Amino acid sequence: MTPAIAIEGLIKDFRIPASKARLRAVDNLSLTVERGSIYGLLGPNGSGKSTTIKVVLGLLKASGGTCEVFGKSSEDASARMGVGYLPEAPYFQRFLTGRELLEYFGCLSGLERSGASKRIDQLLEKVGLEDAGDRRVGSYSKGMLQRIGLAQALIADPELLILDEPTAGVDPIGAADITSLIIELKAEGKTILLCSHLLSQVEAICDRVAIMGRGRLLREGTVASLTENAGQDSIRVDGLSKETRNSIESLAKEQGARVSTPSRSLEDLFLELARDQGDES
Ligand SMILES: Nc1ncnc2c1ncn2[C@@H]1O[C@H](COP(=O)(O)OP(=O)(O)OP(=O)(O)O)[C@@H](O)[C@H]1O
Ligand SMILES: [Mg+2]
């Protein structure tokens, strides 16, 4: 089956105004997002995540390499059918109410007017805005704007959902709601490409993760494969007495092994990679 997204050797250069120099925002990136999975795209600020997403959406033209969405080139407008997108800094018409905004985006995505009203009610409830649907978007808080943005991305019931920092500015309860919603969407068979700095959320829900740094792919794989410490086995035993732990430790030492308290979260790995890059410069 063709993957939801297939990126091969992607390069994106930006011209620096008033200079002949170029900035390479994405540098030879290759990755595949399988259908029905949640894929996390991580990296420090400016590492090329949003640029990659914009190429996938056909909003930016690649300088090199290829990018396909459901087997079609992302330069082909039809590749965007069935794709929902929440931008990192969504800008919405301030004078529309949340409901009107969803009607507007529903119309743009070709949603039948007859079914739209019910769908909008469901979506407002899904994102926790059922009581604010008739208020103007200009009066929404930052977190509410993210939620209406998420509803907007879902309006046409897309197969692929691209979320660029959906939890930015959302409180912890709201972030947990969004996490549950993403899990729900995956259970419905949708594919989700998620860009987030909320590493605990990414670790909990993503099937695979790519970590970018200065446009390049630093690591890619399942969360488990990225966070496991190679060459180490661990046996977790809770509530050991000090004596028992000491005797296990001396037994391990006799075998040339070492007892430690291993644990590396995705966050630890991310910080290690980001620091390594900082040291290089
Ligand atoms: N339209 C543009 N013109 C020129 N440079 C750009 C443009 N868009 C992005 N860049 C540059 O490309 C690099 C990658 O930016 P990008 O927005 O993709 O990073 P990001 O990983 O999404 O960062 P963040 O976590 O801050 O959202 C940055 O150096 C940025 O300044
Ligand atoms: Mg970004």
Which homologous superfamily in CATH is the superfamily of the domain at 35-58 and 74-227 and 265-280? Answer: P-loop containing nucleotide triphosphate hydrolases
Q: Name the shape in a single word.
A: globular
Radius of gyration: 22 Å
- The ordered H/E elements are EEEHEEEHHHEHEHEEHHH
CATH topology tier name of the domain at 35-58 and 74-227 and 265-280: Rossmann fold
What is the end-to-end distance? 41 Å
Ligands bound, unique? adenosine-5'-triphosphate, magnesium ion
Please, what is the average pLDDT?
A: 90
Structural class: alpha/beta
Report the CATH architecture of the domain at 35-58 and 74-227 and 265-280. 3-Layer(aba) Sandwich
What is the CATH top level name of the domain at 35-58 and 74-227 and 265-280? Alpha Beta
**Main beta sheet, described?**
6 strands, mixed
Helix content: 25-40%
β-strand number: 10
Describe the structure.
The chain is of the alpha/beta class and 281 residues long. Helix 2 (98-108) crosses helix 3 (113-126). The protein has a domain at 35-58 and 74-227 and 265-280: Rossmann fold (3-Layer(aba) Sandwich), CATH 3.40.50.300. The chain is 36% helix and 22% strand. The protein has nine helices and ten strands. The strands form two sheets. Strands 6-7-8-3-9-10 form a six-stranded mixed beta sheet, with helices on both faces. A four-stranded antiparallel beta sheet has the order 2-1-4-5, with helices on one face. The two termini are 41 Å apart. Residues 14, 23, 25, 43, 45-51, 88 line the site of adenosine-5'-triphosphate. Magnesium ion binds next to helix 1.
